[in-house]
Amino acid sequence: MEGAELRNEREFPSGKSGQGVGARLPRKEDDRLMRGRGQYVADIRLAGLQDVAFVRSPMAHARIRGIHVPERHRGSVFTAADLVGIKPIRAVSGLPGFKISEQPVLATGKVRQVGELVAMCLAPTRAEAEDIAASVTLDLEELPAITDMLKAREPGSALVHEHWGDNVFLETNYEVDISAALDAPIKVTREISTARQCMSPLEGRGVVATFDRRLDQLTLHSAAQMPHITRSGLAECLDMDEGQIRVISPDVGGGFGHKGILLPEEVCLSWLTMQRGHPVRWIEDRREHLIASSNCREHHYKITLYADRDGTLRGIDCEATVDSGAYSSYPFSACLEAAQVASILPGPYKMPAYRCRTFSVATNKCPILPYRGVARTGVCFALELMLDLVATEAGLEPGEVRLRNLVQPEQMPFDNITRKHFDSGDYPQAMRRALAAINIDAIRARQSLGETDGRRIGVGISIYCEQAAHGTSVYAGWGIPMVPGHEQASARLTPDGGLELRVGVHSHGQGMETTLAQVAHEMLGIDVAKIRIILGDTAMTPYSTGTWGSRSMVMAGGAVATACRELGERALRIGAKLLQHDPAAVVLQNGEVCGVNGSVSLKTIAHTWYRRPQDLPADVDPGGLEVTQGYKPVRDSGTFSYAAHAALVAVDPDLGEVEILDYVIVEDGGVLVNPLVVDGQIYGGLAQGIGTALYEEMPFDASGQPLATTLADYLLPGPTEVPAARLDHMETPSPYTQFGVKGIGEGGAIAPPAAIANAVNDALRPLGVELMQSPITPHRVVTAVLAARAAERSAA
Amino acid sequence: MKPAPFSYERPRDLSAALSMLAASSGSAKIIAGGQSLGPMLNLRLVQPELIVDISGLSELKRAEVSGNELVLGALVTHADIEDGRTADVTRGAMRAVAANIAYRAVRNRGTIGGSLSHADPAADWVSAFAALGARLTLRNLAGARMMAIEAFVVGALESALHAGEIVESVHVPARTVSSHWGYAKSCRKTGEFAHAIGAVLVDPAAASARIVIGAIDTTPIVVTEAAELFGGRIAADYKQRFDTRVADALLAKAGIDDAAQRHIHVSVLKRAVLEAAA
Q: Which residue of A444, A714, A796, B157 is surrounded by the most CB atoms within 10 Å?
């Protein structure tokens, strides 16, 4: 295959140092983070700093008739009327038919969600700012709240944005030959849904804004994944030059998508510091986080699978609805989620016929944001639950049905029915390994004996493939404010032989200060302890769309390798001069330029270049030891990592409790730069997937009030809820990327809800119980068990 | 999430504390471990003018056996009981309950007096002490009164405490040698407040039982005349005779309309009955 020879291309082999690509190196940044020496936005102290608290809407949908500020607090409270010249946040998609929402940074006219910002209160401390906020009263005329995305689609519904005429941000239709599937002997139809969730990183959002009059520059410290994109969005809203804005994102305690969004709070505080001339701060508290700004995942599927008697899939017909909330968020827009549903629903399977209609619906809830896995978690849940039903109909083991339909390794690279280009892999092998590891035969034998404690056990599997590091060709099609191009990295050899790398992506738990150093070490042989990664600052790093879509290792890793390769070439030419060799007669290895006359270290080369240029010949290459290079994979349609998950659970039908007894993940992320870091990514994703499966849900009442507004009500899995999963790595290189790496950051969170739900359904199927909604709560289990018992009684 | 402004006092002794409470005419809140009041203050669900911090009152930290009962000062922590730093007259029952309250960090600071005063129907002590037949001493400047736990908790987050009154101590009767103790609860995750609690103290030899269904939306159901739950009589075969329909009817009578909720409560109670042991 063309391009395959690119993999593991190592012009500057690092030897057996144990620090390069593939080394299980402990994370460099942990020395700082694990000792409590990290610096997050809330740790930043600036002279004259004052705190902001917001007055937020207590209603989901209301007309604002008045905002009353007590006389004593005038001057400390700011409303939309004060924000002259500030533009609303607009995230427009170029997809035909997309309806535009304008999100005012402080509410004007109407409020469209509980928690929407109405007024900004400034005080020396947060507590005092909250006192001021509590003294502000709102005169609101309540309007009917739109809380049910399916009802919101119906004619006559109240409207979130009146001038649209309906509540649909975007409707899409995709069809390939669905009529060919309609005569299939097996036809299964269900409604499936996933609950609205909150992303819940350990650190919430936070902003410290200040203005430097000498530089004529706004500096915004923000817990952000994509500082350069934040800067572009701010410049648009504030009508400033991008050069007048510097965004610094220090240590970040988890992003997951929430920190990729331009916040109204960021715009507000930018305006405020320029008005007031002193630094201002807002730190999101957990209640604000849960109520107002990090919702995700709420999907509904009406889906039909067609199959032959032997389990061969014939087609999917689906109508998918996504509750997009009140506004389109910058930069991903309100339609990314649903559009992704349509493009990835066929999963890792051969699918001859397909139809999918999607609706992105506006409701009086906070905007839905792309959370780790984005639409894939919901898609995997819907599709994999349906595959188990096909297996039941066909009288086959669920694993058999998967193996029959998965794209085969000899078909790779494979263009699927939605024109996704699966780059490489052996999906059936991953499934077979997972089935063997969970020991499906032993579980079936145990099930036939029954449990002594009154519980029932069940096994569930799921498999997905995950497009990562999507490039220009993919995103140009969405037409949203952000399209990734070449990723850039800067590499500088310091006079003492160390290496500084500047990248525009950011690290918020991914360990990139380690893995990017490993890439540089692979190219140059410099000790990773002497490699410094500089990220999270628009003034110090090359432009980048940032960290999202599991792209950083592929894109920034590729850029670092490319920049280091060029740096190595330059060092080699200098080294050759010092050795009095022709450049073609020397090689760079283990941090030294070597020829028959001897060798010279990069440290000596750097020292000579910077500190003793008099030792260099006159005809030396003047390019120097500082390089910025751009990188794109050979194809930019994305890498496709994949994984098979298998769960063994015990379910108590009377208490509704689900215990995970065993969990297996067989994962293929291509060549792994650091398998230890990858394991961590998978464990973390699994925890979030278990949250989706069993715990996390943000319910709303009929008036649009969010009901899980503290962590006592919004349940997150803790250490005792996350089992010690067993991981198995396969490594099929991507043919298109540097080293053959693939993006793997999101995968752990994609498959668990499907595997766990399938396991619960496997356990309860003999009782006539079927659960098609996440999370699987005790109440839902018991309700279904009681309904099945009642149905059995009435049938008898 | 910062509290509204309040004044703060940390009295030296109980009488000083009671004087402060009396002078505040109902606008004061008592803080001990702060495990419930802290979040409520931060969420501004309560906005007292005065916080009286009683954590320095040594007279409320005592735990001593007096006659046939254990008297626990209100400031005894869950961890004190879990770790066996207090005497035990319940033959391990209290220790097992304490060990499963919330998280260790909460148990280190949370106090039994605070937990009872908060009167959350989902809290463990509210149900466990009711099943054990414990009583409370409540004190104000004028004097003290005693009442049974089940009379003390009058509703969700609502106790019989008068303004100016404080939970001083808990009196736990010694558990008889012939009695069986069973305690079960259902939590969706470790450390979470329970969604169902069943607590049973059955004495087949004495043909008596105290049965508690807790963690419902209102006051826990405390059954002291429990024969009906066991088919009319309480004897050695009580586990086989446990009648889930009677328990279900009690829950329906308490206003729990949702059948799945009732089923979970009944199943948890059944587990407490089946696991009850001497």
A: A714
